[in-house]
Amino acid sequence: MLKAAEERRLSLYERIFAGLPAADRSAFAAYENGWVIARSGRCPASDGEVDRTCLREAIDDHAAELAALDGMSSGSMGRLRFRSRKKADVNMNVDIHATYVEFEAPRTPGERHFNEQVLKLVDRLPFGQSIDPKTTNTWQDTIDVRTIYRSPRLISVKFAEWVCCGAYGSGGFYTVNIDAANGTMLAPERWFHLDEVAAACWYQFVEGDKGGEPFRRLYPLREAIERFSENLRRPSIWSFSQRGVELQFSALMGYASGPFTCRLGYPELSKTTIAGFQLPP
Question: Which of 177, 193, 198, 239 could form a disulfide with 235 if both were Cys (CB 3.0 to 4.6 A apart)?
C-alpha cells in the first residue's frame, strides 16, 4: 500500500513538473524536496520503524495536494505559478532566497489579496542588503513554500522560514490564509470556538510523547485554554489540507522540546465550528 501511494505521488509530481514553464521548475522541485525532507519528522518512530499508517496518511495528503495542483486552474479559480527569487552574492555562505506561489492572473479579490500578502512576506527578506563579511561570514534568510491548499472557500499556503547569522539560527512556519468567500484574511474566531479548539489541542499534547504529565503540570487545563485561545487568533499558525488542520504552537516546554503541532481532522474540527458555518471545501 505504501509503495502504491508513493508511486502515485511520484507520478503526479513528474507529470506536473513536465508541464510547467521552465521558470517555475526550480521552485516546484524545491517545494517537493522540502516535503520529502519534512515528512520524516511528521511521523513517530519506534525501534527504528516509522509509523506506517502515519506515513501513508502523509503521502496521501501530499498526493491530494499535487492532484489539486495538477490542473493548476479550475472553474473560477486562477492558475498558481511557482516562483523563486535569490540574492546573488560573491560570498557562497550567503543564502537569501524565497520559493513561493502566486496567482498568475488573479480572478477574485481573494486571489489578489493572497498575492499581496505573499509579496509582503517575500519582500521582508534582505535581497537588497549588503552583507559585510567582516561582520559575519554566514548569512541565511529564507522562505520556502511547504503546503498548498485551495478550495472555493479557502486559500491556505504554508511557508517554512529560516533566519540565521553565524552559528545561530531559528526557524518556523507562517501560513497565508485567505477567506476566499469574502477576499479577506482568515479570522479564526469567526469560524471556530477557539476555547474548544484549544482544549482539543491540550488533550492531544497531554497524551502525546512530548507532553504527558510534565506538560499537564506546566499547563493546567483552564490556564492552557486561555493562553492557547489567544494564540489561535493568529491565522498564520493555521495550516489547512484535504484532511484537516495543523496548528503550529511554539516550543511550549523549552527550546530543546521543539515546536508543538496540533493536528485535527475535519470530523473533530467540525465539533468546534460556529453555528451555521460550514468547513472547507
Answer: 177
